[in-house]
């Protein structure tokens, strides 16, 4: 261990997305290749001597306790745990929220001349469920407590699929006690559970007893209903089809508005046959974890902007490599009835 093929695969995956900025510490990790990268994992990250590194992925992550802070992370999957090697700027991103998130009592980072970054460890034995987002744009990993709920915003179905495959393969190696025999339910409990009126998500229970939960068709229907609600046109709900759902970034048009404000603002882009929408989506709070005592403070989808396709004047495409930059230029006015009102006022009676 490890095989040449695995070393080559991990080395190829060890690339930071070019459109996201990271600190010097994570740039150092991204510069490691081949056996040096594996030795770095065993010498600085791994908690058990005999665990094997199986997969590496760069992704933006969100934590349940800090849902408004998206931070870049190097996600390392081994045969024992999932490690989230975090950008060291996360400590200063939201001090009042992250202060109780990290246990710094035994930390001597102030005395070190070189402190790499924080690392969150989620042991595979503590893993309970994995929720895959719409069209495999992101996935949420749920452990035993609020400290161990993490969403990886891959914004790429290929990366999500590759991680799911590796995670299922590693979980198959775990030796867990078998599930207890099912208890025969009486008539009333069986009858009541089948008539909740709500279709459950598609759920795959792995042999390790970890649940892999995928969205069902109703979620797209609920999203179409929400879009129709924002359009104030419920009559077109039957003919309304969501053509595209993608997690993207909106370039912040205000230059120098704040020093800590990133020029890239995470948005959910939804395209229908008649409109283009940008939503602020909560990727971490839904569906509610079992221990949640109250609903989240904000709705899952909040409309940020919406424009009619017929007002689209032109689309400008950048020439850089993936991810591609698109500029939508709309020829519209704030008040759609403005010209009509002007005509009436001008001509009087």
From TrEMBL:
<dbReference type="Pfam" id="PF23142">
    <property type="entry name" value="PH_PLEKHM2"/>
</dbReference>
<dbReference type="InterPro" id="IPR053015">
    <property type="entry name" value="PH_domain-containing_M2"/>
</dbReference>
<feature type="domain" description="PLEKHM2 PH">
    <location>
        <begin position="116"/>
        <end position="179"/>
    </location>
</feature>
<dbReference type="InterPro" id="IPR057714">
    <property type="entry name" value="PH_NISCH_C"/>
</dbReference>
<feature type="domain" description="Nischarin C-terminal PH">
    <location>
        <begin position="242"/>
        <end position="348"/>
    </location>
</feature>
<dbReference type="InterPro" id="IPR057288">
    <property type="entry name" value="PH_PLEKHM2"/>
</dbReference>
<protein>
    <submittedName>
        <fullName>NISCH protein</fullName>
    </submittedName>
</protein>
<dbReference type="GO" id="GO:0032880">
    <property type="term" value="P:regulation of protein localization"/>
</dbReference>
<keyword id="KW-0963">Cytoplasm</keyword>
<dbReference type="GO" id="GO:0007030">
    <property type="term" value="P:Golgi organization"/>
</dbReference>
<dbReference type="GO" id="GO:0032418">
    <property type="term" value="P:lysosome localization"/>
</dbReference>
<dbReference type="GO" id="GO:0010008">
    <property type="term" value="C:endosome membrane"/>
</dbReference>
<dbReference type="Pfam" id="PF25625">
    <property type="entry name" value="PH_NISCH_C"/>
</dbReference>
<dbReference type="GO" id="GO:0019894">
    <property type="term" value="F:kinesin binding"/>
</dbReference>
């Amino acid at each position: 261990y490890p095989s040449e093929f695995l070393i080559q695969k991990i080395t190829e995956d060890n690339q930071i997305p070019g459109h996201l900025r990271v600190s010097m510490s994570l740039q150092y990790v991204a510069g490691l290749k081949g056996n040096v990268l594996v030795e770095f994992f065993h010498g600085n990250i791994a908690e058990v001597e005999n665990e094997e590194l199986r997969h590496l992925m760069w992704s933006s992550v969100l934590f349940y306790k800090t849902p408004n802070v998206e931070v870049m992370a190097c996600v390392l999957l081994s045969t024992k745990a999932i490690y989230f090697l975090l950008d060291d700027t996360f400590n200063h991103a939201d001090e009042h929220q992250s202060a109780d998130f990290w246990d710094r009592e035994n930390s001597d980072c102030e005395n070190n001349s070189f402190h790499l970054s924080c690392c969150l460890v989620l042991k595979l034995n503590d893993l309970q469920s994995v929720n895959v987002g719409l069209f495999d744009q992101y996935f949420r990993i749920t452990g035993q407590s609020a400290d161990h709920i993490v969403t990886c915003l891959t914004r790429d179905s290929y990366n999500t699929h590759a991680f799911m495959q590796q995670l299922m393969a590693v979980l198959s190696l775990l030796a867990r006690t078998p599930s207890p025999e099912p208890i025969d339910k009486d008539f009333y409990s069986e009858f009541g559970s089948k008539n909740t009126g709500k279709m459950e998500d598609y759920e795959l229970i792995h042999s390790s007893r970890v649940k892999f939960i995928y969205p069902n068709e109703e979620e797209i229907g609920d999203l179409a209903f929400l879009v129709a609600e924002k359009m104030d046109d419920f009559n077109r709900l039957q003919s309304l089809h969501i053509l595209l759902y993608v997690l993207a970034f909106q370039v912040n048009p205000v230059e120098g508005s704040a020093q800590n404000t990133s020029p890239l603002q995470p948005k959910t882009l939804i395209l229908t046959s008649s409109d283009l929408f940008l939503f602020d989506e909560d990727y971490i709070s839904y569906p509610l974890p079992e221990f949640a005592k109250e609903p989240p403070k904000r709705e899952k989808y909040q409309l940020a902007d919406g424009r009619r396709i017929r007002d689209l004047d032109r689309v400008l495409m950048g020439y850089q490599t993936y991810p591609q930059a698109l500029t939508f230029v709309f020829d519209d006015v704030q008040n759609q009835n403005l010209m009509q009102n002007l005509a009436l006022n001008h001509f009087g009676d």
